[in-house]
Amino acid sequence: MESIIKKIDTDLWKAILNSPFNHIDYEALLANDPAKIRKEEMDVSLKEEAITVPKHLSVENIQIPSSDKSREIRLRTYKPKGKQNLPVLLYFHGGAFIYGTPEQYDFIFFRLALDTNMLIVSIDYRLAPEYPFPAAIEDGYDVLSWLSKYADDIEGNKNKILIGGSSAGGTIAASVTHLARDKKEIQIRHQFLLYPPMSHILKTPSMNALVNAPMQTKNAAEWMWKHYLQHNMTKPPKYAAPLLEDNFNDLPDATIIVCELDPLKDEGKLYAQKLENAGGGVNLLEIKGAVHAFDFFPSSLSDIFYCQQIELFKQILNQEE
Question: Is the pTM of this model over 0.90?
Fold first, then answer.
C-alpha cells in the first residue's frame, strides 16, 4: 500500500484523506451489509453544503414508463436553458452496482451540461443485491428506448444519443451498448466509459499488482460482482461482463478512461483492445497519479481532467456533425 500511496498525486491524496466519505467502511459493508452503504453515504451527503444550480441550467427529475408496467424509472436531467435539439448523454452512475445516486454527480453535471451544450440524462437504475443482473441493464435499455422516441420532448436530439458511465456505471453502459447493437433498434453514437470494471475474473496484472489500492481493492471487486451476479458467478449470462462478450463488431466508437493506480486499469485496456481489434475507433486515456474515482475529490488533477472531459466531448460531438 505504501508504495502505491507514494505514486498518488499529492493534492489528490490529501483530498481523499480529508473527505468525510473516507470514514465509511466500504470494504466491511460490501461483505456484510451492502445496502447500508446507501444510508451511510446519504448521511454524509446531508451534512454537505448544497450546490447552487447555475442560473442558465435546468435540472429536473422525471419519471418514465418501465417495460415492467408496475413501476416507473426516475431520470435526473441537466440541460442548458433555452436550447433545443441537444445531443443526449445517457449516464449510469457508479457505486459497485449496489449504491450511488444521480444526485452525487450534480457537482460535475451542473457544469458539464453547460460547458458541452449537452442534455445529460442520469438514470436511477435498480441496484443489487435486491435487484441483481439483469435489472440495471433492463432499466438502461428501457430509458434508451424511451429517449429514441421522446428525447425531443425534453429538448434532446433522439438521433444523437451517447452513452456513458463511471465505475460500475461504465460496465452497465457497455452492456447496454452490446444489447442495443444486437437488437438493432437504436443507434448509439459513442460510448464514454470511466474506469469501468469489465470482468468478474479479476486476474489481470494490474489487479494483482494493485490488490489493496486506495478507493478500489480486489476484495471489494469480488464482493461487487458477487452481489451483482449472485448465483451466476461461475458462468455469467450474456451482457453481464462486457469483457467476456464474443462479438465486438459494429459497436460505437469509444472513449475509455483508466487510472494508473486502479486495479481495474487493465480491464479497461483489454476492452479497448477488443474494440480496436474489431475495427472500432477507440480513444484510451490513462490518468497518471490517479486512483479509482479520483475525479470525485477536489484536486488540481481532477480540475485538469474536467477540462480534458470538456474537450473530449466537444471532439466527439464535432465528429457527429
Answer: yes
Which residues are registered as beta bridge partners of 59? 78
Contacts of 94 (CB under 8 A, 6+ apart): 100, 165, 166, 167, 168, 169, 170, 194, 293
DSSP output for 70-92 = T-EEEEEEEEETT--SEEEEEEE
Residue 41 pLDDT: 95
Collapse the DSSP code of 242 into the 3-class scheme (helix H, G, I; strand E, B; otherwise coil) and give the result. Answer: helix
pLDDT (tens digit per residue) in 180-220: 999 999 999 999 999 999 999 999 999 999 999 999 999 99
DSSP 284-312: EEEETT--TTGGGS-SHHHHHHHHHHHHH
What does the block give as the cell for 96?
Answer: 459497485
Is pLDDT of 54 > 90?
yes
244-257: pLDDT as tens digits: 999 999 999 999 99
Q: Could you tell me which residues come within 8 angstroms of residue 55 by beta carbon, excluding any fewer than 6 positions away?
A: none
Cell readout for 272 is 479497448
Could you give the residue numbers annotated as active site?
Answer: 167, 262, 292
Domain residues for the domain of 74 are 2-319
Q: What CATH number does residue 226 fall under?
A: 3.40.50.1820
* Contact (Cβ atoms closer than 8 angstroms) between residue 173 and residue 256: no
The number of distinct structural domains making up the chain is 1
